[in-house]
Design brief:
Layout: E1 10-19, E2 22-30, H1 38-83, H2 90-105, E3 109-116, E4 121-122, E5 127-130, H3 148-151, E6 158-160, H4 181-184, E7 189-196, E8 203-211, H5 219-258
Antiparallel strand pairs: 1-2, 3-4, 3-5, 3-8, 6-7, 7-8
Helix pairs in contact: 1-2, 2-5
């Protein structure tokens, strides 16, 4: 169907070029016959130039915002990596990592659990960042039918675009009336990252990256999250090694005093 069939009887086109890779056209049309005067063409050309300038500003601001985000991420990551050498600040380190995870993929919330395999115990409350509908739920002890017990056995990253249909996250067969995290917080998509020791593959935690709108992460985003999860695992291991040294020194001191 032509524009004439649509009712257009006069049209003028004014191209504009915001930069070397973008171009646009400003169309002016009339539903009746019309002859564009020199002054009308001059005004429309001015509008076209103004549109080009506006788009240039948009591209510039987007570039500045992207650069600001990259600089922020780098500076935050530097803080995190430096903090790994201070194991007594493990909660602060893990909070920084959770903040960086949330910011890097624009997640609605992030939850990070530490796990102690020898005691078969999750530390509560977990490290959390973002907005939660029922934050008080994290203060409760981990139940025996919690999804965490099944998920801690995972050995690789899992991205779930449709979280409400996930067989472990969504349903609790032993307590049908009890809402799990996905239902309680209205989560649509989630990425689950197991935290493992790089030496022994011991499970030391779980990192959940949650979205209330359906979201599929790309390969680069998953890779970035994996790197942050590895940093969190190193921070936890450093803290536990530090605690073990302190316990050993305390035990040695008591033995010397007893002697």
């Amino acid at each position: 169907k032509s524009i004439f069939d649509a009712g257009v009887r006069a049209i003028a086109a004014f191209p504009f070029y915001p930069n070397s890779t973008a171009q646009g056209v400003l169309y002016i049309h009339f539903w009746r016959e019309h002859e564009f005067s020199a002054s009308e063409r001059e005004i429309e050309e001015l509008f076209a130039r103004q549109m080009a300038i506006a788009i240039q500003h948009y591209f510039h601001l987007r570039s500045v915002d992207r650069l600001r985000a990259q600089l922020w991420s780098v500076s935050r990551l530097q803080v995190v990596l430096q903090s790994v050498t201070a194991p007594f600040l493990v909660d602060q380190v893990l909070t920084s990592i959770a903040e960086l995870v949330q910011y890097s993929v624009d997640a609605d919330s992030v939850v990070l659990y530490q796990y102690f395999e020898d005691a078969r115990r999750f530390a509560t409350p977990p490290i959390t960042r973002g907005y939660f509908l029922e934050p008080a739920a994290f203060k409760q002890q981990i139940r025996g039918d919690s999804a965490l017990w099944a998920l801690i056995k995972k050995s690789s990253i899992e991205t779930c675009v449709d979280a409400p249909s996930h067989p472990v996250l969504a349903a609790n067969p032993s307590a049908p009336t009890s809402k799990r995290f996905v239902a309680r917080e209205k989560i649509r998509s989630v990425t689950i990252l197991p935290l493992k020791s790089p030496v022994t593959s011991e499970a030391i935690g779980l990192l959940f990256v949650n979205f209330r709108q359906q979201r599929e992460l790309d390969i680069a985003e998953v890779s970035a999250l994996g790197a942050l999860a590895s940093t969190a695992a190193l921070a936890i291991l450093a803290a536990r090694a530090h605690d073990e040294v302190l316990r050993g020194e305390s035990r040695h001191t008591r033995e010397l005093r007893a002697f």
